[in-house]
Design brief:
Blueprint lengths: L5 H5 L1 H30 L7 E5 L2 E4 H27 L1
Antiparallel strand pairs: 1-2
Length: 87
């Protein structure tokens, strides 16, 4: 039986470059698109407070944005996982 990490070790530079590109996309490029998309949608945000704590507050609009970002990240990571499993 072969070692499951043999493919990674053999192509280590390729895999590290791919991981760096995924990280750059997730933390640099994707938020820019999200910001642009929210700017295009306009100011129909609900500013009523959803959560308040000693250190601050969270409005419904901020909560909705966080949920949308989370679902986008989950869809992206699912797509990455499916493509990795295909190879």
């Amino acid at each position: 039986m072969t070692n499951p990490f043999a493919t990674f070790r053999k192509n280590q530079k390729f895999w590290m470059a791919a991981l760096v590109l995924v990280a750059i996309f997730a933390f640099v490029i994707a938020p820019v698109f999200d910001y642009a998309q929210s700017a295009i949608r306009g100011g129909s945000a609900d500013n009523s407070v959803a959560v308040r704590w000693k250190g601050g507050k969270l409005t419904l609009a901020e909560l909705q944005t966080a949920v949308q970002r989370h679902s986008s990240l989950v869809r992206f990571m699912s797509e990455v996982a499916m493509r990795v499993l295909e190879q």
